[in-house]
Amino acid sequence: MTLTAVIMAGGKGERFWPKSRTRLPKQFLNIAGQKSMIQLTVERLEKLLDISKVFIVTNDMYAELLRIQIPHLPVENIIIEPVGRDTAPCIGLASLIIEERYPDSTMVVLPSDHIIDHKEQFANVIETAASWAKKGPYLVTLGITPTYPETGYGYIQSSGQKEEHIGLEIHRVEKFVEKPDKATAEKYLANGNFYWNSGIFVWRTSVIRQYLKELLPPVHDVLETIKSEAKRAGQITEEIIRSEFKKMPSQSIDYGVMEKAKHIFVIPYDYGWDDVGNWTALERLNDTDEQGNVIKGDNIINVDTKNCIIEGNGKLIATLGIEDLIVIDTEDVTLVCTKDKAQDIKKLLKELREHKMDEYL
């Protein structure tokens, strides 16, 4: 059974504005280290499989960025979504293309913008998940062992039923739960049977296609139309995708499939994962100074400044007597916000759109 991978890379990374922009989103930025996040994602996968079996789903705007940043990726492995329809249609389209090329295959599906520190351990866990997925109509996900009561993630509850497979625990999933409030997140943390939803999935390609048929018929029906049109044309062409893909409803794979399907399993994972969801992630990814500040860039002077995240762009940034703030300076925008509002940066983007200031998006 051939192991393949699908990287979802069409997002805009809006919570990393103003550095992440419409034309250069977060996954193409060097957030941690000297490589972009999507380059790091591909590098992790190459511990498991050849680049010829890696597929990246994105949109027209980012296709050229992909060719530049991942030059060894076969061009035919770049799958272009003509419109955004959330993760279920994205995964469905990729599964159709992979099934045509590799009829007996297993898919690893993962976001393009996560940080995972330990490549060897990650490869071992994915191999175990793929081995388990081969045993039946199983959908497997990685659940991150929570270390604090995070309210920005969805959670996965283990049923408590578990068994060992190739040295790792595999738990049957009780349910997926939405992002909790602080009190609920604290209960989840204390319970010990809840995991952060990583958004990383492993399944046989034929199995996810069957679940889409059962649980998301509007998505499945369009995929079947694409398949029929491709059979007449001799291949799945961009023209066919452009014509049919937009007919699919927007639906997340979590809500459309994972929350409803049977035979869902989670493998606990605690080897240094971060989804880098907003600017506060820099505190987890970087060293802090003696005052608890994360400072990136030159020409930054701080006096009586504590627990701040400051990133410069060459222009002098001088701070005095501030605490718990985020200050991000780019060529044309300077962001200043409190750390507890980092999740709400999209509100600023909404204001920019309403004022028709699209040049800053």
Which terms summarize this structure?
five-stranded mixed β-barrel; 361 residues; 11 helices; globular; four-stranded mixed beta sheet; Spore Coat Polysaccharide Biosynthesis Protein SpsA, Chain A; 17 strands; alpha/beta
Explain this structure:
By secondary structure, the chain is of the alpha/beta class. The chain has two domains: 2-274, Spore Coat Polysaccharide Biosynthesis Protein SpsA, Chain A (Alpha-Beta Complex); 281-360, no CATH class. It has eleven helices and 17 strands. Strands 6-9-7-8-10 form a five-stranded mixed beta barrel. The radius of gyration is 21 Å and the shape is globular. The termini are far apart.
Outline:
With 361 residues, the chain is of the alpha/beta class. 32% of the residues lie in helices and 26% in strands.
Q: Helical content, roughly?
A: 25-40%
CATH topology label of the largest domain: Spore Coat Polysaccharide Biosynthesis Protein SpsA, Chain A
N-to-C series of helices and strands: EHEHEHEEHEEEHEHHHHEEHEEEEEEH
| Rg measurement, Å | 21 Å
- Which superfamily, in CATH terms, is the homologous superfamily of the largest domain? Spore Coat Polysaccharide Biosynthesis Protein SpsA, Chain A
Distance between the termini: 44 Å
Content of β-strand: 25-35%
Total individual domains:
2
Can you tell me the CATH class of the largest domain? Answer: Alpha Beta
* Cross-sheet strand order for the largest sheet: 6-9-7-8-10
Described by strand count, sense and barrel closure, the largest sheet is: 5 strands, mixed, barrel
Runs in which pLDDT lies below 50 for 5 or more consecutive residues are none
Number of helices: 11
Structural class: alpha/beta
Morphology call: globular
Mean pLDDT: 95
CATH architecture of the largest domain: Alpha-Beta Complex
Kindly state the number of beta strands. Answer: 17
Pfam families: ManC_GMP_beta-helix (PF22640), NTP_transferase (PF00483)
Domain MannoseP isomerase/GMP-like beta-helix: 298-352
Protein name: Mannose-1-phosphate guanylyltransferase
Domain Nucleotidyl transferase: 5-291
